[in-house]
Design brief:
By secondary structure, the chain is mostly helical. The chain folds into 3 domains: 141 residues, no CATH class; 96 residues, no CATH class; 84 residues, no CATH class. The chain is built from 13 helices and 5 strands. The strands form 2 sheets. Strands 2-1-3 form a 3-stranded antiparallel beta sheet. A hairpin with a 2-residue loop joins strand 4 and strand 5. The longest helix has 22 residues. The chain is elongated and about 105 Å long.
C-alpha cells in the first residue's frame, strides 16, 4: 500500500507498507485511518472551498440501493429525500466518505479496492491537478510484482539525479543521498523485479521487502513541518516502530543457544554486558552483516564456536601480557 499526500505549506510525504494474507485486519485498520485522516485534513484546510464546488460523479449511477442508503445516512435530514442531482457538492462529499468507509470495511478485497478508487476519485475531483505543486493525495494497493518495478526505478532515478545535479526536489535529494550506498543492490533488484518469474523464492522477495522497510523508515524520518504565516512553527519526526529491528532483536535473542561463531559471540557479550545490552549489540552486528551481504555480496561463512573461543583466549592472553609489562613483569607459562 502506498499513501502519498502533498498539502502546500503544511506537509508532504509518502508512506508505504506491505501486508501478508494474514494481515487483512491490519490492512483494513490502516486504510480506514488513512482515508479518514486525509479526508479531514484536506477538506478542513485552505482548500475547503474546492470540496464545496467540485463536480462529483452522480452517486445513483453506480451505487446499489443498500449503498445509497449508506450514502444518504451521512446527509443532513433535510437532504436525505432530495434527488442526487439536486444535492450540494459538500453533501455529496460527506455521502461518499460514508461509502468509502463501507467499502473498505468489506471482507472482499475487490470491494475494498473499489473504496480506494472512490477515495482517489473524490480527491481528484476536488483538488486542482493542473500543476504538480498543487495539493494531491492518493492511495494505491498493489501486489509486490506490480509495485516493485516502478518503485526501484524511482529510487535509482533519485540516486542518479542526486549524483548529476544538486537542483532536485528536497525530498528526492534526501532519498537519493540516503540510497546512494545501496546503488549496487538497487541495480541488481531492477533486473530481478522486471523478470516475469519474480519473485521465485522467499529470499528474493525478502531482499525487496528489506529495502521497502528501509525506505519506509526513511520517509518517516523526513521532517513533518507545520507552517503558519509562511513560518515554520513546529518541526518533528514521526516516532516509528521498525519491524526489521524487531526481527533482528528476535534473531539475536536465539543466538545464546546456538553452537556457532555468532552464538559464542552472543554468549560472551551476555556475560560482559547483560542480556538486554547483548541482544541490542548482536542485533546491530547482524544488521551490519546483512548490509554487507546486500551491498557487496559478501557471503557469511560460519567458523564455529571454537574459533571464537580460541580468538577470545588469545586476546585475553595478549591483554594480560601488556598489563604485566606495564608493571615490569613478564608472564611465564605454568610448568
Amino acid at each position: 500500500m502506498t499513501v502519498f499526500h502533498h498539502l502546500p505549506g503544511v506537509s508532504e510525504g509518502e508512506e508505504i507498507d506491505y501486508y501478508t494474507p494474514g494481515d487483512r485486519e491490519r490492512l483494513q485498520r490502516d486504510l480506514l485511518r488513512k482515508t479518514e485522516h486525509y479526508f479531514a485534513l484536506f477538506s478542513n484546510s485552505e482548500y475547503e472551498d474546492h470540496f464545496s464546488c467540485a463536480e462529483y460523479e452522480p452517486p445513483d449511477d453506480y451505487l446499489t440501493d443498500a449503498e445509497l442508503d449508506t450514502f444518504r445516512s451521512a446527509l443532513d435530514l433535510d437532504d436525505r429525500d432530495c434527488p442526487p442531482s439536486d444535492l450540494h457538492p459538500r453533501a455529496i462529499f460527506h455521502g461518499y466518505c460514508a461509502v468509502v468507509d463501507l467499502w473498505i470495511r468489506s471482507k472482499d478485497l475487490a470491494i475494498c479496492q473499489k473504496g480506494i478508487e472512490l477515495f482517489n476519485s473524490v480527491m481528484e475531483s476536488a483538488l486542482p491537478t493542473d500543476d504538480s505543486s498543487n495539493p494531491r493525495c492518493y492511495v494505491t494497493l498493489q501486489t509486490a510484482k506490480e509495485f516493485a518495478p516502478a518503485f526501484i526505478g524511482d529510487l535509482l532515478d533519485a540516486v542518479r539525479t542526486c549524483e548529476k545535479t544538486r537542483f532536485s526536489l528536497p525530498r528526492w535529494r534526501y532519498v537519493g543521498e540516503a540510497m546512494k550506498p545501496l546503488q549496487p543492490l538497487l541495480t541488481m533488484l531492477a533486473k530481478m523485479v522486471t523478470n516475469e518469474a519474480w519473485p521465485k523464492s522467499d529470499l528474493a522477495l525478502g531482499k525487496f521487502l528489506l529495502l521497502a522497510d528501509y525506505y519506509r523508515e526513511l520517509m518517516r524520518g523526513w521532517p513533518c513541518r507545520q507552517i503558519s504565516g509562511g513560518k515554520i512553527i513546529k518541526q518533528e519526526r514521526q516516532k516509528v516502530k521498525n519491524r526489521v529491528a524487531e526481527a533482528l532483536r528476535m534473531a539475536a535473542s536465539t543466538l545464546a543457544r546456538s553452537d556457532s561463531y555468532l552464538g559464542a559471540r552472543s554468549r560472551h557479550l551476555r556475560n560482559r554486558l547483560g542480556p538486554g545490552k547483548a541482544i541490542k549489540a548482536m542485533a546491530a552486528h547482524l544488521a551490519r552483516l546483512i548490509y554487507r551481504m546486500l551491498t557487496h555480496g559478501q557471503a557469511w561463512v560460519d567458523r564455529g564456536a571454537l574459533e571464537h573461543e580460541t580468538k577470545r583466549a588469545e586476546r585475553e592472553k595478549l591483554s594480560l601480557q601488556r598489563k604485566a609489562a606495564a608493571f615490569g613483569f613478564r608472564l611465564e607459562p605454568a610448568a
